[in-house]
Design brief:
The structure is a homodimer of 375-residue chains.
Chain A (H helix, E strand, L loop, with lengths): L2 E3 L2 H11 L1 H18 L5 E2 L4 E5 L5 E10 L3 E9 L3 H5 L4 E9 L5 E6 L1 H19 L6 E5 L3 H11 L6 E5 L3 H10 L1 H4 L4 E3 L2 H7 L2 E4 L21 E4 L12 H6 L1 E4 L2 H7 L14 H6 L12 E4 L4 H17 L4 E3 L13 H4 L2 H6 L6 E2 L13
Parallel strand pairs in A: 1-7, 8-9, 8-11, 9-10, 11-12, 12-14, 13-14
Antiparallel strand pairs in A: 1-15, 2-4, 3-4, 4-5, 5-6, 6-7, 15-16
Chain lengths: 375, 375
């Protein structure tokens, strides 16, 4: 009944062990299946909740739970503290996620939630884009070339046969380093900077993944995209923060990942309820019915759905087991005598006193097969 | 930026290292101070929330968050699965609690939540009883002699000069082993079984800590307690579950730990809003104003308040640091390059591939002073 603790290093070893491409392909595949089989009868995804504060430093700490009956619950804790980089040399987002057995309550595993979030956000865009984008889409535009854009490109490069990738970022440094940062998986792709106007006009699929300020969006306007463009709107995740122009949204088929949340903090904030289309899982479950949207403008309003974290964590846990990575620690109290909270002080007092703390079991993986070669 | 993982063994070593009495005294002291200084300006305690299910096995998994601005948040996850003992030889309750830095979002520590819960529930009763019970209270009655009763007796034995402890449990085995189970701290006390009627009639302070079924309460009736009796109602923690007779409650000064929660799942379920008194922190902050309640029947409606967990965890973390116990693991992703989720695959690919997983730092405490001697 130990808990598996995966260090960041363990997660990196998993990603490198199986290869980034394998990891992304598998995640897209599992996410597709999860959307196909999603039902509120088997899975519960409450809206995220948390602490939001503006003093002494602005930030938020929120929990994103998801539960499948008789199987597992995952609860991701996400800290968002924009002052971290400057004052602490830490990333804005720090996150961990725990998996619980919903038949016993046992904490099965605890691991980092940040890389997992980037991966699943990319994978969700891949699922949405593969259904809603026009057949033969070849040009991808990325507005915002930061951390999320890397995972978006990775996921979409596994889904589309891309001819060209156009990138734009308000920060010239971020734009300038994108090609190098994506080289680990995208060295075969033609990536070039573009004006935001050119990017919007020429792309078949667009991802907006910016840190535009509250009330400062949209991130483009006054430019007409292709009549079949599909947009993945990634950045909107807070009340008042939007990336897509209202007039475009109003003409588009808008598919949120999680309607309640998208209305509160996604692009759907800008829309009336009747302007919002079905959730992504409904589109995935009824592909034929939504076939026609491929010819029109479509928007995937991605605010981050806890089911995506759930699927990603299950995958990483499986790979950790396969590669025998992680540290096992007995955290939960399992009393020898269920009606004695002090059992350790009576029956085992002397034994406990003389014993060293349990040495954690540290798995080693002597011969991880690096399926990802030196791209 | 590592996370401190405390194993159950670490927590036992802390408890034995400082001594159970010291731990309880310190906790009562800190809880008193926390109630004295509690303000919604500095501390946020949302109602607990979670998943409740009745298939494939009945259970619930809930989270209890608490946050002090600019300091720490704690989130306790509690699994309650009544089938655990029979089907898995596991306790009904499995629990872990995490502490987060609310200036950075960092997960500081993760540890077991079960022992901590028993301790803080006992300590909260001690705080409530010390203010509301009649001066010179000497006889304690325990209805329900299970795991919580041990911690209740421990806490109250540190607060009162007890002459006699009367116990009653519907389960003769549980009643029969109580003296032995409590001997680690209570060998100097006169503990004897009683009928529930005798117990209620003779006690100055009563704790009800039963697992009475939903709709099956109260746990005593038709017997008149002393006119100054103070009751700590511990067991009510679910809609429909109550322990105290309504006619007694209606005559009593009823003080909930957390009004909103007590109305939903505590004794306060039975009352109308105007029959419910102030929360415990208000009574602690205005001792003089509530001096008169010592002469009347008083009830502390204890449903479990996340602030109590918060205080208990902070104490245990301090003691862990003092005794240098726990295992440190780098769990959260701290990218070298903040805009590259795959930084580990580019700059450090070969290094990571060849490196063993980080060896966790395991603290040892070579010479823990056992302040608790062989009582």
């Amino acid at each position: 009944m130990e808990t598996l603790i995966l260090s960041d290093e363990d997660v990196h070893r998993i990603a490198l062990g199986v290869g980034l491409d394998y990891l992304m392909d598998e995640l897209i595949d599992r996410l597709t299946k999860a959307f196909e089989t999603f039902s509120t009868e088997t899975t519960v995804v409450p809206a995220r909740d948390g602490f939001v504060y503006d003093h002494p430093v602005p930030g938020l700490l929120e929990w994103m739970p998801c539960m499948t009956y008789g199987d597992r619950a995952t609860v991701k804790l996400v800290g968002y503290h924009p002052g971290n980089p400057k004052t602490r040399s830490l990333p804005t987002i720090l996150s961990t996620i725990g998996a619980y057995d919903t038949t016993s309550g046992h904490l099965i595993c605890l691991m980092d939630g940040t890389l997992l979030t980037a991966l699943r956000t990319g994978a969700a865009s891949a699922v949405a884009s593969s259904i809603m984008s026009a057949p033969g889409s070849r040009v991808l535009g990325l507005i915002g070339a930061g951390v999320q854009a890397i995972a978006q490109l990775h996921a979409l490069s596994r889904t589309f046969d891309l001819e060209e990738v156009l990138i734009y970022d308000v920060d010239a440094d971020v734009q300038g380093t994108f090609t190098e940062r994506s080289s680990v998986f995208a060295s075969h792709l033609s990536i070039r900077p573009a004006t935001v106007g050119d990017l919007v006009r020429k792309s078949d699929v667009i991802c907006t993944a910016t840190s535009v300020g509250i009330g400062e969006g949209p991130v483009f306007y006054g430019v007409e995209p292709k009549p079949w463009v599909h947009l993945n709107a990634i950045g909107s995740d807070f009340p008042g923060k939007v990336e897509i122009p209202l007039d475009l949204l109003q003409r588009a088929f808008v598919c949120p990942d999680f309607r309640t949340q998208a209305i509160r903090e996604g692009e759907c904030q800008q829309l009336t309820p009747n302007q919002i289309g079905p959730d992504l899982f409904e589109v995935v479950q009824n592909r034929d019915r939504y076939q026609h949207v491929r010819d029109q403008i479509t928007v995937f309003d991605s605010t981050g759905w806890a089911l995506e974290d759930h699927v990603a964590m299950n995958l990483i846990m499986e790979l950790a087991a396969e590669l025998r990575l992680g540290t096992r620690v007995q955290i939960e109290s399992i009393p020898v005598d269920a009606v004695n909270p002090y059992y350790f002080a009576t029956s085992r007092r002397h034994e406990t006193a003389q014993r060293r703390p349990t040495e954690p079991v540290l798995f080693e993986s002597p011969d991880i097969a690096f399926r990802q070669t030196g791209t």
